[in-house]
Structure formats: C-alpha cells, structure tokens
Amino acid sequence: MLDAFSSFLGSSGIAALINNMMSAASSGKNFLEIIGTPLMIAIACLLLYLAIVKKFEPLLLLPIAFGVLLTNLPMFQNSSAILMHTEFFTDPQYMIDGHLDMQRIFAEGGLLDLLYLGVKLGIYPPLIFLGIGIMTDFGPLIANPKSILLGAAAQFGVFITFLGALAMGALIPSIGFGVNEAASTGIIGGADGPTAIYVTKTLAPALLPAIAIAAYSYMALIPVIQPPIMKLMTTKEERSIVMEQLRPVSRTERILFPIIVTIVVALIVPDAVALVGMLMLGNLIKESGVADRLAKTAQNGLMNTITIFLGLTVGATAKAETFLTPATLGIVLLGLIAFCFSTAGGLLLGKIMCKLTGGKVNPLIGSAGVSAVPMAARVSQQVGQKENPSNFLLMHAMGPNVAGVIGSAVAAGVFLAMFA
Amino acid sequence: MTIAEALSEGLQVTVVGLAIVFGVLIILMLVLMAFKTIFYKEPEKAAEALPNAESIALPAAKAEPEAKPADDGELIAVLTAAVAASLSTSTYHLNIKSYRRVGNEAPVWNQAGLEDVINSTY
User: Fold this and answer.
1) Which of A147, A417, B12, B76 is the most interior residue, by most CB within 10 Å?
2) Is B35's CB within 8 Å of A149's CB?
3) Which residues sit opposite B64 in a β-bridge?
4) Burial grade of A287 (CB within 10 A; 0-12, 13-18, 19 or more)
5) Which residues between 255 and 314 in chain A have a beta carbon less than 8 angstroms from any beta carbon of chain B?
6) Inter-chain residue contact A142 with B28, CB threshold 8 Å
7) Residue A393 in contact with partner chain B when CB distance is under 8 A
8) Are the beta carbons of A156 and B40 separated by less than 8 Å?
9) pLDDT (tens digit per residue) in A373-399
C-alpha cells in the first residue's frame, strides 16, 4: 500500500513542480525559467482578478486567464495529462515541412490542442466577426459617409507601431522582432481582438498570448487612455460642437451596404475577406430581416461558444518559456503606443474635417475610429457631454466606430498579403 | 537589420498600407455618397405633414401651460421618440417646438379600465 501511495505521489503535480524546477536549476537556466511555472500561475491569478474584480473585458479575459492557468500547471514531460502542447504549433521539429502534423495533434494532443486548431486554422475569429456583424448597425455610417475616413485615420497607430516595433527589433536584437512580429504588434492599434488574433496566429504564433492579452486589456482601458489625448488635441470650442442630425437610412441601403463592402474589399484586399466577409454576412442576416433564427443563434449561442474556445486556447498558448520574455514587455509597451497613436490619428483627421466643413464636425468623433465597439464611441459621447451636457455625439461616433472595424480588418489583410 | 534598414522598410510598408486602407474606405465612401443621391429624398413632404400630425395628436384637453425653457433636452428627446414611435416614423422628421402638460379629464371609470388593460398586458 505504501508503494502505491509513493508512486501516486511521484506522479503528482507537486512532484512534477519540484522535479521541473530542480532540473531547470541544475541545467543552468536563468532565474525566470526556474520559477516560470509558479510565476505564470501568479500571472493567471492576476488576470483573473482583473477580469472578475476590475471587469476588464471579462467575457474574454476570464477564459484567457483560466487558459493561462491550465497550461502552466506543473506536469511531467510527456505526461498524458498535458492539455496543451504549444510546440506542436510553433516548433518546426514537431511539424512536417513547416505544416502542422495533424496525425500527431490528433493522436497526442490534449483537449486544448484540439480546440486550438480553431485558432490556428483561422476559424474562430471570422465566426466571432459573424456575430459582431449581427450586432453592428451600419446606419450611422451610411447616413454620414465621410465618417468612414475617420475609421481609416485611426489605423495610423497600427502602422506607427509597426515602425516602432521594427526599430525596437533593430536596436534590441535579443527581443527578436522582425517584420512578422512587428506587424502582429502593430495590429493591436486596430483595437480589435479577433483581427489581432487572426493576424498573429499566422505571422507570429509565439506572440499570440501576449498580443491578445495586451489588445483586450487596452480595449478595456479605452475610457482611461483616450480622454486625456482627446482633451489635449482639441479645444473647448471644438469639443462643444453640436452636429447635425443624421438622415434616416432606408432598408434597401442597409441591405446593399454589406454586399457592396464584401465585393469591394475582395477586389482590393482578398486577404481581408475572411474577416470582412463574415462581418458583412452577419450584418446582412440582420438587415435582411428574413433570417431571424440565424441571427439569434449566431449572435448568442454560436458567438458565446466560440468566445469560450477562443479565449481559453489563446490563454493556453501562454507557456512560461514563450511568455516570460522581453518580447512580452515590448508588446505591452508598444500596444499602449499603438492605442495612443490610433486615437491621435482619428482626432487629427477629425480636426481637419472640422476645419474643412467650417465647424460642422466635432473632432471628438475621430477618436471613435479605433474599432473597440461601442466603447470608443461611448467615450466620445462622454467627453463631448462634459463640455456641453445637451450634446449627443453617440450616433455620430458610431459611424467612425464601425468604420474602424472595417479599417482594421483591411489593415490586417494588407499585413497578411505582404508578409504571410 | 540595422535601424536605418528597418525604418526604410517600415516606412515603405506604412505608406503602402495606409494608402490601401484609405483607398478601400474612400471607395466605400463614394459608394455611400451615391447611396444618398440614389435612395434618399429630402423629406420636404414629411416636414410639412408632421407638424399637423403633432397638433392633431395633442389637442385633446385643455392645457396647463408650463414654461420651462431651461434644461429639458432629455424630456424632449423622450417626447420625440414617443411621437416617432406612435406615428411609426423616424425622429429625423420631427421637431418638437413646444409641449405642455395636459390635464386628465377622463371619467374615473375610463381611467380604471385603462389601468386594468395596462396591468394585464405588461
């Protein structure tokens, strides 16, 4: 009986933890690698705290944080209990000619490996976009076509950050930023989680957890990040501009819009079609009004299911050895820069449009061009209302806001076309 | 990659990338502007018709005039939305110029009946 007990103890997590730390210490790895497992568990708990107590995008951060926890539990090497083998997806040793070794993944993969296929094969982000499409109202955009340009200007931060990441990679070679990593980091500035994941899983899969966590955390922090920049870049008079009411939009226009966008985007940036196409399909399902049942499923059951799978598996890629690197710190820093420059880009064009139209456009709606829907638009509304309590900018800001979704998906398509 | 190389490559990508993003969205903007000319008619008729509708909708009882010029944007927004909903039109066509509280002169039995219906429905 004692034998059975000791062999059980020998296969336990405690034994694995001690064994792994000892072997890391004896093989002369650095301090971070030795305490990697407990440190990652602490980070997972911190993220859980942010999700549950601070309510940072809890729908995504909660599964992400738990994925981080699950993947970093102490296990013996080659244990059948391991849920996630990130090496199957990133390490060329485990691949066949640079492609996934599906046989191995199906035979040896754990639960999270199998679910992660949905990320790796680019299935989840477009399906999330399907649900987002159903929840999106393009009416304010159709009523005010010029506001679509603000959605383009807010992609400024994406490219500035791309430049910044390249420079950082050149200055600090150990961080390992090439064009692929720089593009994945830059896309954080699009403020669009699924888009960032879609680009990163192709260009720089090892950075996926850091980029997803940075993107979703900064999205939750938009009400903190944006207002100071908005106040800095606009005058009191500009902030209190009241905009003309939007014209009503007919059903025909609402139905034609998603179809035309899909065709136009496909003609110019085919790589963006997976995202934009699904977004527009979702919107068409809603606006057509003939497929209510599909709309209900796609925006509730389907989207929630995918959100759980996506969050959990993205979190699960955050293994200590890939996450506890200088690159993660770089991404956290550059991600913040990306958000700031995207906000500034939108505001800048907002100011130009304000001047050109003789003060008819409130530049505050420019910052809503970052695509975090509807958070960024709500921030425009709140900042505007502080100057003029009877000013309702929300619907005006929704135009650039939904345009930002299209804009960041196009920017993603550009990166994929250039570097994938 | 030296910093100069990195920056020059990055700048090329930035210029091309921003140009494409703006290009796609400018095309969409032109499409939407075409939408406006094709599908949208200025609501001349509606603007004329609806003030009448408004005065038809409200004339019922005697007024207790209430002059509150100041801060009632919210109330006006609610009233506009309510009128728009009952006329099944867009708030775009409505412009509330004034409002007043109307005394309730309905017989008490009518009121009781109305309350009954409301309570049983919702």
Assistant:
1) A147
2) no
3) B101
4) buried
5) 256-257, 260-261, 264-265, 268-269
6) no
7) no
8) no
9) 889 999 999 999 999 888 889 999 999
CB contact under 8 A, A170 and B33: no
Mark A47-78 as b/e (b = at least 16 C-beta within 10 Å): bbebbeeeebbbebbbbbbbbbbbbbbbbbee
- Angle, alpha carbons B60-B66-B68 (nearest 5°): 135
> Considering the entire predicted model, what is its pTM?
0.83
Report the Cα A206 to chain-centroid distance in Å: 15
pLDDT average, residue stretch A126-153: 94
Q: Identify the pLDDT of residue B44.
A: 62
The residue ranking higher by pLDDT, B119 or A265, is A265
> Closest chain B residue to A266 measured between Cα atoms?
B24
Which of B3, B28, B71 minimises the CB distance to A148?
B28
Q: Is the pLDDT of residue B48 over 60?
A: no
Do the Cβ atoms of A152 and B2 come within 8 Å? no
Selecting from A146, A250, A414 the residue whose C-beta is nearest the C-beta of B20 gives A414
Q: What number is the ipTM of this complex?
A: 0.90
- Confidence (pLDDT) at B2: 82
Amino acid at A291: A
The answer to whether the beta carbons of residues A326 and A46 sit under 8 Å apart is: no
- B25 to A170: CB separation less than 8 angstroms, yes or no: no
Q: Which residues pair with A405 in a beta bridge?
A: none
Give residue A44's pLDDT: 95
Structure tokens given for A15: 């034994």
- Hey, are the CB atoms on A169 and B17 less than 8 Å from each other? no
Residue to mutate among B5, B27, B28, B41, with most A CBs inside 10 A, is B28
Task: Give dist(CA B78, CA B73) in Å, integer.
Answer: 9
CB-CB neighbors (< 8 A) of B84 in chain A: none
Q: For B50, which DSSP code?
A: H
Contact check, Cβ <8 Å, B25/A264: no
Whether A58 contacts chain B with CB within 8 A:
no
Interchain contact A174–B (C-beta under 8 A): no
- Classify A28 in phi/psi space as left (phi over 0), alpha (psi -120 to 50) or beta: left
Contact (CB, 8 A) for B38 and A197: no
Quick count: other Cβ atoms within 10 Å of Cβ B82? Answer: 12
Q: In chain A, which residues have their Cβ closer than 8 Å to the Cβ of B3?
A: 167, 170-171
A316 Cβ under 8 Å from any chain B Cβ: no
Task: Point out which residues pair with A96 in neighbouring strands.
Answer: A99
